[in-house]
Design brief:
By secondary structure, this protein is α+β, with helices and mostly antiparallel strands. It is about 45% helix and about 15% strand. It contains 9 helices and 9 strands. The protein has helices spanning about 30-35, 50-60, 75-90, 95-100, 105-115, 130-140, 190-215, 230-240, 240-270; strands at about 5-10, 35-40, 45, 70-75, 155-160, 160-165, 170-175, 175, 185-190. The strands form 3 sheets. Strands 1, 2, 3 and 4 form a 4-stranded antiparallel sheet that branches. It has a 3-stranded antiparallel sheet with strand order 5-6-9. Strand 7 (about 170-175) and strand 8 (about 175) form a beta hairpin. Helix 5 packs across helix 6 (about 130-140). It is globular.
Length: about 280
């Protein structure tokens, strides 16, 4: 039996320890009830794990607050980030695109440009890659915008493999490294990626099934207001979101797979197949 090297992990905060929102009228909803810890197991590396040094530094600065190894935040945010990546990361691209885009030096330059939201300088013989590259990399970067010092984590497809790449060497505060996962990458199949997403989604939805039922059964303090109908609707809608995203992703994968075959055939016949940025340019 094959062991998947990629796992998306989480731990929900106990219900009794979740602080309600609002001082005058304390309340909770589905998003807040997903409060917890999240991390990624990439082979022997843990992404989204704080260093001992930064924890010690923050403990001195904020003695009343303890972060621990993982950021406490609603898991729903990580779940949505991952499903957004699912829609774009597995899309295949043509050999012309890959050769120009995925050289180690060039891809790092483009990733940096995406983080800084600037346009890199490119030569004219690289088709439209320079024009679209910051957006391309930004779509494949794990946003984690809720974090004060978000890690630099990208996920994309090269040929028949997926690549998870991280470079947090420059993510520091007061010259102290923030993340234990400094620099590295992991390769796996597209099926491995989809299986890992399914496993995370399934575990998360099952955990929230139990939590929602507890709240519906009166498991929260009566002083905390919860829109029970809205809670049930949001949970049911989220439980269906993976299938919707997978359908949308497969539609894009099928289209680009066909496009790559056409471009590859043109290339083998000695014609240059320019990179096509979206479907409207070939329809």
């Amino acid at each position: 039996m094959r062991t998947t090297k990629l796992r998306f992990r989480f731990e929900l905060t106990p219900l009794a320890k979740i602080e309600p929102w609002g001082d005058d009228k304390p309340n909770l909803h589905w998003f807040g009830l997903t409060d917890g810890l999240f991390w990624i197991e990439a082979g022997d590396t843990e992404l989204f794990r704080y260093t001992d040094a930064i924890n010690a530094h923050w403990a001195k600065q904020y003695p009343q607050t303890s972060k621990g190894y993982y950021e406490r935040y609603p898991i729903a945010s990580y779940h949505d980030d991952l499903l957004s990546l699912l829609e774009v990361a597995p899309i295949p691209y043509s050999p012309d695109f890959s050769e120009a885009f995925f050289s180690a030096k060039r891809s790092r330059t483009l990733q940096s440009a995406a983080v800084k939201s600037v346009e890199p300088i490119v030569s004219e013989n690289q088709h439209d890659i320079g024009k679209h590259s910051p957006k391309w990399w930004a779509q494949r970067r794990w946003s984690a915008s809720h974090l004060l010092h978000p890690p630099n984590v990208w996920l994309w497809r090269e040929a028949d493999s997926m690549r998870l790449y991280w470079d947090n060497r420059a993510v520091t505060t007061d010259n102290i490294p923030v993340w234990t996962a400094k620099h590295g990458e992991l390769s796996f199949t597209v099926n491995d990626f989809v299986d890992a997403v399914r496993a995370f989604d399934g575990a998360f939805i099952r955990a929230m099934d139990e939590r929602v039922q507890t709240v519906l059964d009166g498991g929260l303090s009566p002083h905390i207001h919860v829109d029970l109908a809205g809670l049930r609707w949001m949970h049911d809608n989220t439980a269906k979101s993976l299938d919707r995203r997978l359908w949308e992703a497969q539609d894009q994968i099928d289209f680009h797979t066909a496009l790559v075959k056409v471009q590859t055939a043109l290339r083998e016949r000695g014609r240059t197949a320019a990179w096509v940025s979206d479907a409207s340019e070939v329809l």
